[in-house]
Amino acid sequence: MPELPEMETYRRLLSEKLAGQRVTDVEVTREKTVNLPVESFIQEVQTRTVVAIERRAKFLIFKLDTGKSLLLHLMLGGLMYIFENGEDISRTKQVTITFGKKKLHFIGLRLGYLHLLTAEQLEETLSDLGPEPLAPSLTVETFLERMDKKRGALKTSLVNQKFIAGIGNLYSDEICYHAQLLPMKQTNELTKEDKIRLYNSIQTVLKRGIQLGGYMDIPVYNGDQLTGGYNKHCYVYDLEGEPCKRCGKGIIKDKISSRKTFYCDQCQK
């Protein structure tokens, strides 16, 4: 499932291509992907202008000139692709939004969705999310206060969207590795120094993920050289048996709360 760095990469690339563009056509091939009757959805979106594309946690928000927004969650398997000048793709599209010669295809949204919401509905939908991990408001002091209230395994806390929004399975493992903490370690057993190191690792790993374009291995458009760059730079994720980059011991694959988890049991404590 795409996490914060992947969705931030999408936001940046789509903003460059589509922000300020007028929707000239809308096609919905899977009714369950949208939250309105198909004809109503098309009528509300077609001819509108996407004034901005924003991100909140793992969501993308396409702001329309009507004051309403399209809220996207890709879930498992979802992706987007922009085709220009008559290009196409053989995969089934759940929704296609056309901007003149550009077509934005939403693909693989069997579990994901694209909902049209008012400002009030959008605020309510996102109201349970925790703070953005890279927001200036999440200072180390604020983070320590939030950590003091947490119980349970460290990884479980990191992927809890009500605690901090945007971190998922991959980056939780990468953060724990960078902080030299075992993902199954209980949060109430962490020292203040551990928590400060964890905070700094969250900042470092997520910024690195964004800089490298996240781990999604399908580009956003023909010629996109950014998307998926993180795949070749993972510390531990999906590297079972590979030597740890710090100590050389083999990376372990385990499960924590039914989530596959990767770590080094020698240099993570």
Number of helices: 7
Overall tally of structural domains = 2
Shape assignment: globular
> What gyration radius follows from the Cα positions, in whole Å?
20 Å
Taking the alpha carbons of the first and last residues, their distance comes to 27 Å
| Helix and strand sequence | HEHEEEEEEEHHHHHEE
Note the main sheet.
4 strands, antiparallel
Name the poorly predicted regions.
none
Proportion of residues in β-strands: 15-25%
SSE-based structural type? alpha+beta
Q: Please name the CATH architecture of the largest domain.
A: Orthogonal Bundle
Mean pLDDT equals 96
Question: Strand tally, please?
Answer: 10
Question: At the third CATH level, what is the topology name of the largest domain?
Answer: Helicase, Ruva Protein, domain 3
Sheet with the most strands: spatial strand order: 1-6-7-5
List the helices and strands and how they pair.
Layout: H1 4-18, E1 25-28, H2 38-45, E2 50-56, E3 59-64, E4 69-73, E5 79-84, E6 93-99, E7 102-107, E8 113-117, H3 119-125, H4 140-148, H5 154-158, H6 169-178, H7 192-211, E9 252-256, E10 259-263
Antiparallel strand pairs: 1-6, 2-3, 3-4, 4-8, 5-7, 6-7, 9-10
How would you describe this protein?
The protein is an alpha+beta fold and 269 residues long. The protein folds into two domains: 4-125, N-terminal domain of MutM-like DNA repair proteins (Alpha-Beta Barrel), CATH 3.20.190; 140-263, Helicase, Ruva Protein, domain 3 (Orthogonal Bundle). Helices cover 28% and strands 21% of the residues. It contains seven helices and ten strands. The chain has helices at 4-18, 38-45, 119-125, 140-148, 154-158, 169-178, 192-211, and strands at 25-28, 50-56, 59-64, 69-73, 79-84, 93-99, 102-107, 113-117, 252-256, 259-263. The strands form three sheets. The protein has a four-stranded antiparallel β-sheet with strand order 1-6-7-5. Helix 1 (4-18) runs parallel beside helix 7 (192-211) and helix 4 packs across helix 7 (192-211). The protein starts with a helix and ends in a 6-residue tail after the last strand. The model has no long low-confidence stretch (mean pLDDT 96).
